Amino acid sequence: MSLLADLQNILDSEHVLTGEDAAPYLKDWRGRYMGKALAVVRPSSVDEVVAIVKLCQQYDTPMVTQGGNTGLCGGATPSNKGDAVVILMTRLNKILNIDTENDTMTVEAGCLLQTVQEAAEQAGRLFPLSLASEGSCTIGGNLATNAGGTQVLRYGNARDLTLGLQVVTAEGEVWNGLRGLRKDNTGYDLRNLFIGSEGTLGIITAATLKLYPLPVAQVTALLAFEDIATGITILNRAKYGFGASLTGFELISSYCMENVRRGMPEIKMPFEPEKAPWYALIEISDAESAEHARQLFEKVIEQSFEAGELADAVIAESQQQSQSLWHIRESIPLVSARLGQEIKHDISVPISKMAEFVAVTNAQLQTLLPGVKHAVFGHLGDGNLHYNVGAPDGQEEGFLDNQKAVYKVVFDSVSAFGGSISAEHGIGQLKKDLLLDYKDEVELALMRKIKRALDPHALLNPGKVISSVERY
């Protein structure tokens, strides 16, 4: 028998894909990474995942787990060796339980994020994780990368929204940790170990998630102001004025606004991009009433105008207008992909140092590559920026050849300001080697020990996240 034949005995042959049928799952959605595989398999149950893992152990075959394939760091793409099995989790897509008294929902890892959001809303609850890719990304992928999104300021990352996990280990054992407990102080926190590990320590097959009350009302506004330092002042004013009601504070540069205007002319822009150098999309969620939310919002915005912080502001008058404002923000990465090559960064620095970081790093990049574009946007409320660098006019061809030099400038600056080279996108294969330069050696040594302990044959997603624990 062969591995392929044994896999076909476990699954219907239509769920063991090879050749052209497997091709769509062997590259990332941006087209930056292309790999090969022995097969792509589509299990529909935990038992089938277990059987696949045990077979791969028997045949000493690497495994790459994939969800919606929306990642940005190549973490779900196999290598070019062609020796791996890709385990596609999208058929494990059941919502197993909703407990409104405990405010929890248990779902399989292949559930789309949008499906989970909608199921929570139908139960009168909120699942607050929100990403631009929510219509195609899966909960398993969200947890594997500890996804962030636009409401981290209020609710935290995917890790903070998870109470329990079910995980298939490298040996094919099942850890059933689907406990809906907010307090469980009985040893090592295995849940948080697997979340963010990008499939290198185990395969997440299900999760118990936190739910929240649905807000009675939400108010959204787009603010225009002069510089990031002013934006931070407005953020602090909003934190004080709104308290826990503040759910989102998204920074957008005028360059990003102009990109959206050019790339998606069908979108109605509330301001001309040249209205101000910087913008913030801000949202509050209120538990009392729409009128209360509006009054509170207008009070804080008025204070900001009186202090001379704002050049202009547009407050959404309806849910449709609110969605239109968010559509601008969510269109930024899509438009960037259409308009030209960018070298992307997902970084975090302390909010207090954000303005200086951007000013210093922009200047250093202009010295390195005069005329580069600064496509800066992201989650100012939690210190996470998507600090992207675009090609100078007329120099798009071959611009990505500068990636190593640009990374050096940006990540050296991030390190100097006490930040992280990955805030919410993960490490994957894109940043694996960079960890050697920007992560403490003791941390790296501990990570390697954990990897060897939980995956001694290095079969789970080899070549991702951590260096020096490789098969070859």
TrEMBL record:
Family annotation (SUPFAM superfamilies) = FAD-binding/transporter-associated domain-like (SSF56176), FAD-linked oxidases, C-terminal domain (SSF55103)
UniProt entry keywords in alphabetical sequence? FAD, Flavoprotein
Transmembrane annotation, as ranges:
none
> What protein does this entry describe?
FAD-binding oxidoreductase
**Similarity-based family:** Belongs to the FAD-binding oxidoreductase/transferase type 4 family.
What are its cofactors?
FAD
Its signal peptide is none
Question: Which Gene Ontology terms describe the biological processes this protein takes part in?
Answer: respiratory electron transport chain
Q: Which domain of life is it from?
A: Bacteria
Residue span(s) of domain FAD-binding PCMH-type: 33-214
Q: Name one GO molecular function term.
A: FAD binding
